[in-house]
Every structure is written in C-alpha cells, then in structure tokens.
Amino acid sequence: MKKLLVYLKDYKKESILGPFFKLLEASFELLVPLVMAAVIDTGIANRDSGYVIRMCLIMVGLGIVGLASSVTAQYFAAKAAVGFATGVRRALFSHIQGLSYTEMDTLGTSTMITRMTSDVNQAQSGVNMTLRLFLRSPFIVFGAMFMAFTINGKAAMVFVVTIPLLSAVVFGIMLATIPLYRKVQAGLDKVLGTTRENLTGVRVLRAFNKEEEERARFSERNESLTKMQIFAGRISALMNPVTYVIINGAVVVLIWTGAIQVDNGIITQGEVVALVNYMSQILVELIKLANLIITITKALACANRISAVLDTGSSMESPRLEEWVRAGKKEEAGSERGTVEFDHASLMYKNAGAESLTDIHFRAERGQTIGIIGGTGSGKSSLVNLIPRFYDVSSGEVLVDGVDVREYPLEVLRSKIGVVPQKAVLFRGSIRDNLRWGKKDATDSEMWEALELSQAKEFVEKKEDGLDVHIAQGGKNLSGGQRQRLTIARALVKKPEILILDDSASALDFATDAKLRGAIRAMKERLTVFIVSQRASSIQYADQIVVLDDGEVAGIGSHSSLLESCPVYQEIYYSQFPKEDRQNG
Amino acid sequence: MDDKWKKKAVKKDTFRKILKYIRKYWFFVGLSLIFAAATVALTLYIPILTGRAIDSILGPGEVDFNGVRNVLQTIVVVIILTSLAQWVMNVCNNRITYHVIRDIRRDAFGKIEILPLRYIDSHSYGEIVSRVIADVDQFADGLLMGFTQLFTGVMTIFGTLGFMLLVNVKITLVVVLITPVSLFAASFIAKRTYSMFKLQSETRGEQTALIEEAIGNQKVVQAFGHEEESQKQFDEINGRLEKCSLRATFFSSLVNPCTRFVNSLVYTGVGITGALSAIAGGISVGQLACFLTYANQYTKPFNEISGVVTELQNAIACAARIFELIEEEPQVPDRADAIELTHAAGNVSLDHVRFSYSPGQKLIENFNLNVKPGQRVAIVGPTGCGKTTVINLLMRFYDVDSGEIRVDGTEIQDMTRKSLRSSYGMVLQDTWLRNGTIRENIAMGRPDAAEEEIIEAAKASHAHSFIKRLPQGYDTVIAEDGDNLSQGQKQLLCITRVMLCLPPMLILDEATSSIDTRTEIRIQKAFAKMMEGRTSFIVAHRLSTIREADIILVMKDGNIVEQGNHAGLLEKNGFYAKLYNSQFSV
C-alpha cells in the first residue's frame, strides 16, 4: 500500500487542499443550527424582523461559501484520484511488460488484466472518496458534539452516550453482514457454476439424459442461495429501525434535559431546537462513514493486489545494450553465426518439484533443421523456449552464435530469432501492421515474400484490401490455419538467423504443412530451423531429430537411425504410421 | 419516434411479466404496502410532536413539565411503532424480492435445459450465464430498491406536503417553490455528465482492449521486442483517459454540493418566512422547528427517487434480457405417441438428408447412408470440415431440414429423445467433466452403479491404474477447469463414463493431438474394446482406424464428398486419396 502512495506524491497539494476545503464546508454547515437558534431566541423573542432577515442572509452566505469550498474540494479530490490512477496504471503496464515468462506464469495474465482495470478503478474511487469524506464525516459527528458542549454541558452528555452507541450499532450490523454476504456470494458462485456447467457440457448432459436431475440440482442450490439472501437481508433490515429508535430516543432525552435546563434558565428555547438539529445531523454522517469504510476496505484490498504485482520483480537480468556495444562484443559472432548449442542444459520451473528438462546436450549447425518430438509434457516447448531466453536454465548453458544467451542484451538475442508460438496470436490492426512486428520498416515486397514462404500469399491476395485487411481482436475474422500462416510470415519478415516453429503447423492440413517446410528449406538465407511437433511426418526429414521423453533426451539422430535404435521414437512413429502402411506408402 | 414507441411497448410488456411473478406473493406485497404507509405516517408525525414539546418549553419558569412528559411519552410509543413497521416492511420486501428472483432463475435454468442446441451453440456461454446471474442480480437490486424507496418516497413527499399545509400554507409554498431547483440542478448535471461518462467508458474499453492484447499475449510481445511500441500506445490512451476521467469525476461530483446548497436555501427560506410569521404570531416556535425538520426531509425523497428511477429502468432492461431467454423457443417436444427405443440392434440409415445451420448456407445435401448392425463408420476430412455435424444429427442435437434418419427402421423423430440418446455412447474430443468426484463423473450415466461396477469399467478402459494413484483415488474432486488432470486422463474418464453403460451404438471422436503416446495407446485399446459388436461412428484422425472402418465418410467444407471403404476410395483417386497421400509427402 505504501508503495502506491508514491503516486499520490505528485498530487500532494491536491490531497491536502481537498480535505481542507471539505472541512471548511462542514464547519459552515455546523454553524447553521446556531444561527437558527439566534433567529429564534433573539429575532422571534424580540420581534426583530430586521435581525431575522440579517441572520437569514448570513445563512445564505454560509451556504454560498459552503458551496464554493465544496466544489473546490471535489475538484482537488477528483484531480488527485484520477492522477493517482493514471500514474498507477502506467507504472503497472510498464512493470508488467518487463516481467519475464517465469513471473507471468506464476501471476497469470487474467489476474494482471483485472488488476490493471477494475482494481485500479476501485483504488481510484477509494482515493476519491477518502479525500472527500474520510475527514468530513467524523468531523461533523464530533463537531456536532462539540457544538452541543458550547451550548450546554449537561445536554451534550446525551451526545456523548448516543454517538458510541450509534456507532456500535451501525458498524456492528455492517460487520455482522459482511461474512453473510460473503456466504451469499459463495452461494451465487455455486448457482453460476451449475449454469455454466450446463452450457459447456450440454451435449454430454443431454446424451446422458440428465435434464431432470440437473433441474433438481439447480433448484437445490438456488433454494439455498435464496435462504442465505433472505437471512442476510433480514439482518441488514435491522439497521434502519434500530438507528431510528436510538436517534429519536436521544431526541426525547434531549428535550427532557433541555426542558429542565430551560426551566432553570440555563439555556434558551432556540438552543433546544439547535441541539435537536445537531442530533439529526449525526445519523446521516455515521451511515455515510460506514459505507465509506466498506469502500475503503475494498479499495485497500485492490491496492494490495496492485502492489503485489509491482513488488514482483523480473527474475531475469541481462546486460544493457549500450554497455554491450561499448564492450565491443558486437562483432564476436562470426564463424559461429546461426549455431545453437545446448551444453548440458537443465530447466526447473519456479516452484516446480522436479526438472522439466534434464541435461540436454546437442548442437545445431547453421542451416540445419532440427525436429523435436515427444509426448505431451515431455518438454518440447520448454526446450525451444530456452533459445530466445524466455526462461533461464537452472544449470548448464545455451549458446547462440557461440555465446551464452545470458550474455546478450535481450533485444539483441531476440532480434536474431523468429518465434512462431503454439497459439496463433495476431493483434488488432491490418495485416501490414502485424507483419511489421517482425521488422518496423518492412517494405511491401518483403512482406509479400514472407507471405509466400508461409503459404499465406494466396489467401491474402484473394482479400480485397490485400495487406490492409483489418484483423479483429484475436484475429477472429480469420480461420485458425490462416492465422497460423500469418504468424509464420510475421516471424519470417524479421529475416531471423534462427526460426522456431513451436508446434505451429497443427492447424494446417498435411499438404500445407509439407509445402511450408519445403519453402523454408529452399530459402537462400540458410535459416537454422527448430520444428516442434507431435506429428512424425512433420519432422521426419529434419537433419537431426531430438526425441524427448519426460524432459530427457531419449535419442538424437536422423529418422532412419532413430527408427532403428530409439524405442520411444519407434513407439511414436508406429502409432501414427502402422508398419504395414509404410510398406504400402 | 417509432423506435421510441416500440421501446416503450417492450418496457410495458416486461413490466407486466414482472408483475406476473410478483403476483404470487400478493400477501406480502399488501403487507409491505400497509406497513410502508404506516411507517411514513408515523415518521411524519414525530416532528409535530417534537414541535409541541418545544412549545411547552418557553423559558425559565415557563416550562409545562406535564405537557412535555405527555408528549414525550407519545413520541416514545410512536418511535417504537415506527421502527416495528419499518422492520416488517423491510422483511416483506426482502422476502418478495428474493423469492421472485429465485423463481425467475429457476425458470431461466429450466429453459436452458430444453433450449435447442442451435441456440446454445450460437450464443456465447458467458452471455447466457450473465443473463441468469448478473442480470437477475441487478434486477433484484432494482426491485428491492423500488419496493423500499419508491413507494415510501412518494408517500413521504405527499405526506409532508399534507402535514405542512395543515400547519401553515405560506411556508409550505416556499418549500414547494424552491425544492424543484435542486431537482433541476441534479438533472442538469446528470445530462451534462452523461456524455462525459460515455466517453470515459469508451476510452476505458479501448484501454482494456489494448491491455488484453498486450498483456494477454506478452510472450509474443517480448519475442518480437515490441514493448516500447506497446507502452507508447498505452500512454497515449492513458493520457486521454486521465483527461476525460477527470472531467467525468469532477462534474458528476457536483450533484451533492449543489443539492446541498439548494437544500440550505430551502432551510433558510423556511427559517425567514417561519420566523417572520412567528413574529406576527402566525405560528409557534415549535411549529417552526417542525417545519425545519420537514424542509430537510422533503428534499431527500426527491433525490432518492431520481436514483431509484434510473435503478428501476436498469432493472427493467435486465429483466427484459432475462425474459428474452425465458421466452426463447424451446426444442420441439417429443411427440405424444413417440415410441421408446429399447435394445436397439444398431441399424442406422440416413435417407436423403438435407441439413444446414443457417437457411442461406447450403451444407449437407442429399446424404444417404446405410449402416448395418456392428459396422464401423469413419468420418474423415481436414480440420474444420464439419465432422461434428454428423454427430449433431445422429444424436438429434439438431433436427434435419428434410429427409429421414432411422434407427432400426424407425425414424428418430418418432422416438423419445431420451431413448434415442441413451442408445448411443458418446465420447467427444472436447473432454467435458463436471465439477465433482471422479466416481460421480464415471457414474453419470448410471448414478446407481455399484462400486465394483465402477472399478470394473475403469479397469476395462485402462483408467483404473491412474485413478488409483491419485491422492484421493475415486474420491478425487475434479476442479472446475479440470486442471488437476491431463488431457489424456480426462479422455480416459470420458471413455470410462460410457464404458459403464455401454449402449448398443457408439459415437467416438478421436483426439488429434496433445495426448502423449502411451496414454493414446491406452485410449485406442479402450476404443477397440468398446466397439466390439457395436455400430460405431468415429471421427477419425488415425490411419489405422480409418483403414479398418467398414464405411469411410469423407467430408469437406461441411459436406460429404465421398463415401466408401479404404481401397475403393484410393482407387477413385479423389479427395480422400489426396488427403491420404499428403501424410506421406515431404
């Protein structure tokens, strides 16, 4: 939380002036009953119409000054709160962008998004409300009591008793209902879960003729939710009647004490009216305060979630670009250009019990195609993720162009590598915008070249707008195969030394997949290509095939040698191409 | 204009439907109204009593203690009655609201159970869920607020007016004339800020979209070193958001100070006219105090009511969305004379079947197929060619547009859905498991199955060994997203689920990828065991499955383009041959 207050620092003036003007307004508000008491005691008692009019003009004046100060206060509060939120959002975005894969995995993207949006909004309204009301409400409550004391000590004792009693009731009921409403929320989640299940599993549930049972299941959960809601509602329904009794009870006592004091000539009739007025101001403010405390608690929880993100630092350090250039390291990669070497590399994910990759050791030469195959969870993606340093090895080394990846500035390393991720992700904008992710100043002809290689030229050409076709969020207006081909083109526009296809042909049919591989192989730039796949046919013709089993290398070699010597490869291959087929084909 | 009229008609219609739900609780509604009236009347009576008490306290030696005591005793009684009435009213309102929304939720869910798949497939789950949950919730809030505040608010306004008129006409006029200013100010500000809020939420939406893209796909952003560009885009939107957010926040926060100011004007107005008439002897000081309390009370319900009205409008809009779902056309019910399909032999025939998802788009035209008991039908084709359409038709998730599908010679529309569907065992690639224990999931088709039968089925489908090794074995709870099981394990459970019932016909959907080889071999074995002697339809990806099939249906772009066995289709050298050969080329 403290960490976030930094973002209020730029709005120090506003954060102080806001509450200050608010208190000013409250003070004026507290004066009104006194003026009215004067009207009654002096004006009416002395039948002085001039005095009455003067006093009323003072009241109007108090109102105008109050309005002015409260408008000023609202402005400062809004400015501080909005500025605070803007700063926090900016810091969050930039911080999250700098996090490495490891932190993204532990925190999860969907939580990041809620933290940046709804959590920040909640925090903003929390700051706003705090600046506006947090001082004002207690000030009025205690101010009213103070004013009562200036009128008469004995009568003010009624306030001294009433305020704690009222606070206890208001906050007590609120506190009592919070866990109840949490229960209601849990019940609602159950109802939601059942509804969701019946939509996602509609085919299975209908295939098993579960409609009647599901209805009964839903009814049961619905009924228990209703019971909880009614119970919680009944408790919070106590709030109004109980506070009503207390406040009016206090007024009764006040009038009785007042009567005695007036009889003794200690206070006047008008002052009794003022006391009654002060009493009625208290309740409104206490309820406001209780609501405010709920808002603040929520905002604090949000603020804590936000600072948790800001506290998570990136676990990956890399040399800065300028230092790297100054050290003259730029020229080092010469003869080793395009090579990738795994030197006894192992990888253990954060908080994981066991290694995901163990002792990977092999070398890819420039222009080679490396196939990586293995079952789910065997570590194929983990292996290629080490090359652009999305994760750091836990032991051993990964070398690109003969240099340990940890010695490169990240931007230098990643500029050498074209990655086509498993999930075909495109961004809103035109095809041209998306391809330029690979190279900021790519020309049209460079783009068409990449599209041709990735087998996407044909469908892009067919579109009326060509490269300017608009891509909706998530690429929803394209088919899976089209998206995948565009992501491949995006990586190729970059003209990388190393291309990584992480199971990226899965949405392509066999024929297109084969054509794509043929085209990349025919490129004159001699790319070093890593192909991760479940399909034996996709990697069969690679120069080297790395067979992974449970994070360990089960075999490295060509298709024919592996087929002879590697049982895991045999198992995979024959499960996809039964022996007799191979003879036929 | 026409549109506006229509909107009004919808609103009226929705309102009528809401009333229908409320009518069931008429007793509580009546009770609530009576007690609300009592609450308002008693609340308004108190200032008068207080005023009377004050009039008995004129000055030193001029206090009528007897009078004060009497009035105060009455006040105590009135306070107790008021709070009781208030409490009863609140409890009634709670009861009505939560029972009404319970009924609505129940009806909405009941409708989901009989909606045609066509509707469910064409709407996002999130949208339907939000109708049943979020909309209903919002509706409840509006309804509760409407009940508690609208009626009492209106009553308070008229009650106060009445009481004030009884005491003094002139001061009442002051109150009545100045109060509208506050309403005017509030609505003036609300109108002005509406466009600011709209701009703010649009900008927020824009920013959220950017965040979703950039953070949601951060791995790609980093792989392409695009961080700086994204930050630049973000800052630009963030700056705009700051500006419009400040405007919206500030201007909307003016409502309270302005109404407070107008209220203080009313207060002063009452003070000045009241004091002057008191000087003239028109009213007493106590009556003036009473008026001052009224002046404070009178403006409050106006402000509340404008809030309630927006809330109510919102609630009606939500209700309209819920009713849309509840009134959605259900699937055609089973015919009254529909027969029960029992012990199906497994003869399935499709005769001149025509089907498409949307009327304009042709899909399956004139599809004929005759499957004899025990035969295997493989459905093949490239990804996204609509292989699931066949499943949809066989299971009668969708009805054919024309033509007939018959099982054992009876048209499937002439039999009950229940008996047709329980004659099929279905394993889909989309491995859906419910949030519950493994045992519950396996026993879905036969909740009364004995423990031994469940274990037997799990053994037959090769799932027993991994279930045994789970921390709680068969009592392991499957999380909502099923994250605690691998894809392959989930598939094995789906197979076990069917294995336990083992109906005479099967629909199987082979997994394309993401299953490790060992598990896949197990799944194959389980499939083979199930298919023994049963008519089976298999959406196939594996060559061995395809080759062993009696009939191969080749699909392309949603339509069946070829039909025959492996050798015959290869000979034909058509689409199938092309598809088959592409697996072996470079």
Any chance you could write out the topology, listing elements then pairs?
The complex is a heterodimer of chains A (585) and B (586).
Chain A: H1 2-9, H2 12-44, H3 49-97, H4 101-107, H5 109-134, H6 136-151, H7 153-200, H8 202-207, H9 211-236, H10 239-263, H11 269-311, H12 321-326, E1 340-347, E2 357-364, E3 369-374, H13 380-385, E4 395-400, E5 403-404, H14 410-415, E6 417-420, E7 429-430, H15 431-435, H16 444-453, H17 457-462, E8 470-471, H18 480-493, E9 498-502, H19 510-521, E10 528-533, H20 536-539, E11 544-549, E12 552-557, H21 559-565, H22 567-576, H23 579-584
Parallel strand pairs in A: 3-10, 3-11, 6-9, 9-10
Antiparallel strand pairs in A: 1-2, 1-4, 4-5, 7-8, 11-12
Helix pairs in contact in A: 1-3, 2-3, 2-5, 2-6, 2-11, 3-5, 5-11, 6-7, 6-11, 7-9, 7-10, 7-11, 10-11, 16-18, 21-22
Chain B: H1 2-23, H2 26-55, H3 65-114, H4 117-122, H5 125-167, H6 169-216, H7 218-223, H8 227-252, H9 255-279, H10 285-326, E1 348-355, E2 364-371, E3 376-380, H11 387-394, E4 402-407, E5 410-411, H12 417-421, E6 424-427, E7 436-437, H13 438-442, H14 451-460, H15 464-469, E8 477-478, H16 487-501, E9 505-509, H17 517-531, E10 535-539, H18 543-548, E11 551-556, E12 559-564, H19 566-572, H20 575-582
Parallel strand pairs in B: 3-10, 3-11, 6-9, 9-10
Antiparallel strand pairs in B: 1-2, 1-4, 4-5, 7-8, 11-12
